[in-house]
Amino acid sequence: MTAASLDRIRIGSAPDSWGVWFPDDPQQVPWPRFLDEVAEAGYAWIELGPYGYLPTDPARLAEETARRGLSVSAGTVFTALHRGPAVWDATWAHVSEVAALTRAMGARHLVVIPSFWRDDKTAELIEAPELTAEQWRLLATGTERLGREVKERYGLDIVVHPHADTHIDTEENVARFLDATDPELVRLCLDTGHYAYCGGDSVKLIETYGERIGYLHLKQVDPAVLAEVVRDGVPFGPAVRRGVMCEPPAGIPALEPVLTAAQGLDADLFAIVEQDMYPCPPDQPLPIARRTRRYLRGCGA
């Protein structure tokens, strides 16, 4: 594989790879250090991460990123659209803040993460792990509405992120969601780690639903740790603390075939490295980021 073979893939990283899950948390590195180190590691693209972690003033954020040679690929929002119209106003208030900053930074994508069905720390059920037929309908129509309004008001494309411990997780549920939504309004952010965590095959998904893939998150799962997590019924947060998401190329899925399949879509795609590591020692992320960037260059990206 030559470097030119993946010329439609743009590689970046995200605050997640520096152990950042929250706008403000004493266990996380300060945002200037993240920006310094992500640039030092060789990445040119970043995501905003949790809204409020990076500066939310567009002029200041533009200055901070530009002087480090960084550009923003996407913002991220969290939704619970299966709960129906009652949550729309609160959802839109959150989305509009993030979308405005995302657009101001010149990005074109908004990553949409569904709500968790169990508490990320205690494993307590927040709601049923499976949606009813009516909740599936509300999820589909609500996501289409979100895609339409984000496009009309902010000129952004939404990409929905299948995620562990959410209702859009397994191959079956991802397919059901895609089949129920309009391809013109709703595409996927395929996270290779989360999809493998939930038993999915990323290459198969790209080959089957290629026109629905709008964005990639690159990560790998340690299969030995995953087996323990599944056996013990561990929620996602504690699973991360056990090291279920690992540094490539030590885990699954192999990223070279995923990137090759994505290149075959003949579309320009972002592929953003996201190695869940919350919490982690402050000196841990940079060496991993350097090695991961070198590894991806060896894959042709």
TrEMBL record:
Naturally occurring in which organism (per UniProt): Streptomyces palmae
Name of the featured protein: 2-keto-myo-inositol dehydratase
Gene3D superfamilies found in the cross-reference section: Divalent-metal-dependent TIM barrel enzymes
InterPro entries: IolE/XylAMocC-like, Xyl_isomerase-like_sf, Xyl_isomerase-like_TIM-brl
Domain Xylose isomerase-like TIM barrel: residue ranges: 35-237
